[in-house]
């Protein structure tokens, strides 16, 4: 995935940030826990300021290609060690840059890469962006999601129908809430970020 596309994606999500700023500031930060569906589940061990386990129920019936991509990358170990590089209070925590998000990567590059797999066509749905919902980050093109994803701290209705919803957190939102916030431009995390130290996949019957 080219830096141009990722930069475009940062701009696209940045525009969404500006458009929804008032919504986030007023948004509630509590909600009933989501029920676990048929899965598969993405299990993330987080370390840093936040420590613990986060379980995401992937919505294969809503975004099958995107759910399959997260499973593929997790099962290959590609997500292990990847940083939460962009974390905005009251909005979302973004991670998944398997190219530039690992320890030892060039400073400032996290968030500008993806995987070696091709970009995915959009799978927009009517599932709203609520607290705990997981969306796929993308460039300005709707068909440019690859490996990066974000977890919502609060509802962001201005994202509805514009980004692919791929899952919901069904366990560990208290861990997500403790992920180190960014203070740089656009919510970029400076210094040592929190990381997904290990990401695995669980299926019913495992």
Q: Number of helical segments?
A: 3
**Strand composition percent:** 15-25%
Low-confidence stretches: 1-12, 17-28
Span between N and C termini?
34 Å
Number of strands: 9
Shape: globular
**What summary fits the major beta sheet?**
9 strands, antiparallel
Write down the secondary-structure element order. Answer: HEEHEEEEEEHE
Description:
With 206 residues, this protein is an alpha+beta fold. It is 19% helix and 22% strand. It is built from 3 helices and 9 strands. It has helices at residues 3-26, 64-75, 173-176, and strands at 41-47, 52-58, 82-83, 86-88, 92-95, 133-136, 149-152, 165-171, 195-202. A 9-stranded antiparallel β-sheet has the order 3-9-1-2-8-6-7-5-4. The longest helix is centred in the first third of the chain and has 24 residues, at 3-26. The radius of gyration is 15 Å and the shape is globular.
Key descriptive features of the protein:
206 residues; 3 helices; 19% helix; nine-stranded antiparallel beta sheet; alpha+beta
Short description:
The chain is an alpha+beta fold and 206 residues long. It is built from three helices and nine strands. Mean pLDDT is 86; it is low at 1-12 and 17-28.
């Amino acid at each position: 995935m080219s830096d141009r596309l990722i930069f475009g994606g940062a701009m696209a999500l940045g525009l969404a940030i500006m458009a929804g700023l008032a919504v986030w500031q007023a948004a509630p930060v509590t909600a009933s826990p989501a029920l676990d569906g048929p899965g598969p589940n993405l299990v993330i061990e987080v370390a840093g300021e936040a420590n613990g386990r986060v379980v995401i129920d992937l919505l294969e019936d809503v975004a099958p290609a995107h759910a399959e991509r997260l499973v593929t990358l997790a099962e290959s170990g590609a997500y292990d060690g990847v940083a939460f590089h962009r974390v905005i209070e009251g909005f979302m925590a973004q991670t998944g840059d398997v190219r530039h998000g690992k320890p030892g990567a060039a400073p400032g590059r996290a968030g500008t890469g993806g995987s070696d797999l091709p970009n995915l066509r959009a799978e927009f749905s009517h599932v709203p962006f609520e607290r705990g919902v997981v969306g796929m980050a993308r460039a300005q093109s709707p068909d440019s999601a690859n490996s990066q994803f974000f977890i919502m701290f609060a509802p962001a209705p201005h994202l509805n129908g514009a980004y692919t919803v791929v899952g919901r957190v069904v366990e560990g939102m208290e861990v997500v809430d403790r992920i180190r916030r960014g203070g740089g431009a656009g919510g970029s995390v400076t210094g040592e970020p929190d990381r997904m130290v290990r990401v695995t996949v669980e299926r019913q019957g495992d």
